[in-house]
Amino acid sequence: MILCVTADKKLNGSCCVPGDKSISHRAALIGSMADGKTVIHNFSEGADCCRTLQCLEALGVEIQRENGKICILGRGLNGFCEPDDILDAGNSGTTMRLLLGLLTGQDFFSVITGDPSLRRRPMGRVIDPLVKMGAEIRARCDNTLPPISVRGTNSVHPIEYTLPIPSAQVKSAILLAGMNANGRTTVIQQIPSRDHTERMLQYFGAALTIKDNVICLQGKRPISGQLVRVPGDISSAAFIMVAAVLVPGSQVLIRDVGINPTRTGIIDVLKMMGADIEVIDQRSWNGEPVADLMIGSAQLKGVEIKNPLLPRVLDEIPVLAVAAAAAEGETVISDAAELRVKETDRLKAVASELRKMNVEIKEKPDGLIIGGSQLKGARVKSWGDHRMAMALAVAGLIADGETVIEDAACIDISFPDFPDVMRALGAGIRAEN
Ligand code: S3P
């Protein structure tokens, strides 16, 4: 599939975005570890969360899908069944890493793999702590790359672990394994990362406490099924937010967006750059803050983006690079080396595709330096990465002439309706096969 984008229209109106991907994965995994039924509304429609459901079904979990609602019959903390085939996490790093945590506490053998992109992503970061917790794990390339085999255990050791990198997936894998540990698991984070697992475990009744940057979890305490309403994904909303800021004369309302402070770096950075964003009617859904966002167009200026802000805008760097390209002055992004091991090397991909659109952009080992430019339409490619495809579509909305994004079917990973939602707001975007 290709996306064809033209720049002549302004964006107006209101919309919703798909359910948050991170929260959807966690609701399904934690609901499966609970006793009784969990009902999830607004579960992410993307392919990644679908992979989590399929893997859980292969582990014996009964899941019913009813229009926009998912019902999960929990198996309890360690009542899963040995799968009779290889588990396939597709493109989803969150599925693979969090599932490895759950599998650590299951007394059986399983193997998990993924697509070519996922099979290149580093797994040593979760394998190391999970082996310390008692799982027997083997993987390709000296225990670092999928496919991965796991022999879990009934007696998980509780550990105290200081996270070497600010990764929510590593933190979550340890906490999910810790649910089956004989005692108290402690995770110490030097720089905070998204905290949806902590919030969701507490919502389900787990014995989890947080003080400063230390998370403590008492193992072997059963949790019970809950009703979960998943907020809209701020990482999907980010594409619409940046588009509304950049296209002159736009005014867009995005309803029911999750505004967990570990994820709202995109709002803070756009405001620092001079954007006009209003957070309206803040409320709470199952322990997660939610609001409507009103965004108007504005002229932006370049800024510096680095730690401790970086983990709060981690997934939004491709689209922020587009905002930076349209800003006055230079934007410098640092402390972002992790982007090299996402669905693709996002620093390299962003630099090489935006350069084709006349953007002055330099790659650093841990970031990007982006100069403000008048973008020109071009034929660009997604590198098979959903966030690249959508960021380039936003770039097309402010470029002279037509932009064609090749290999764009990957938007299905997180935001299958992206072209339709954008078109309904007035954007000149169409999908072609
Ligand atoms: C995620 C954590 C982040 C993020 C990813 C989703 C999660 O990855 O980039 O898209 O749901 O826990 P890391 O934990 O590798 O930083």
Topology:
Blueprint: E1 2-6, E2 12-16, H1 21-32, E3 37-41, H2 47-58, E4 62-66, E5 69-73, E6 87-88, H3 93-104, E7 109-113, H4 124-132, E8 136-139, H5 140-143, E9 145-151, E10 160-162, H6 168-178, E11 184-188, H7 196-203, E12 208-211, E13 214-218, E14 227-229, H8 234-246, E15 251-258, H9 265-272, E16 276-285, E17 288-296, E18 304-305, H10 317-325, E19 330-333, H11 346-356, E20 361-364, E21 367-371, E22 379-381, H12 386-396, E23 403-406, H13 418-424, E24 428-432
Parallel strand pairs: 2-15, 3-14, 6-7, 10-11, 18-19, 22-23
Antiparallel strand pairs: 1-23, 1-24, 3-5, 4-5, 7-9, 8-9, 11-13, 12-13, 15-17, 16-17, 19-21, 20-21
Helix pairs in contact: 1-2, 1-3, 1-7, 2-3, 3-4, 3-6, 4-6, 8-10, 8-12, 10-11, 10-12
What are the key terms here?
binds shikimate-3-phosphate, 2 domains, globular, UDP-n-acetylglucosamine1-carboxyvinyl-transferase, Chain, four-stranded mixed beta sheet, alpha/beta, 433 residues
Polypeptide structure, described:
The chain has 13 helices and 24 strands. It is α/β, with parallel strands linked by helices and 433 residues long. The protein folds into two domains: 220 residues, Enolpyruvate transferase domain (UDP-n-acetylglucosamine1-carboxyvinyl-transferase, Chain); 209 residues, UDP-n-acetylglucosamine1-carboxyvinyl-transferase, Chain (Alpha-beta prism). The chain starts with a strand and ends with a strand. The mean pLDDT is 98. Bound molecules: shikimate-3-phosphate. The site of shikimate-3-phosphate has 10 residues, from helix 6.
